[in-house]
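Fold it.
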Amino acid sequence: MTDERTYKAELIGPTTVGNAEVIELPYVDGAYQDLVELTFEADGATSVRTWALGEGTVEPIPYNFVGEVDATPPNVEN
């Protein structure tokens, strides 16, 4: 690859949170990361979104949205 330690990646889909956002990611063993997981907080809820490496070799490298998990524990009174 290059002598750089990081590369620019573009997160694609599904909504405005994280969509078309360009971030810097570190290379892992000299290669692009296969998956990227980011945590977002909105309205008191925490979600973890996952993107997978897409097709492309020119920066920013595309990552396609693959899923979201609500990481906020339920607030249930006994």
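DSSP finds no helices and five strands in the chain.
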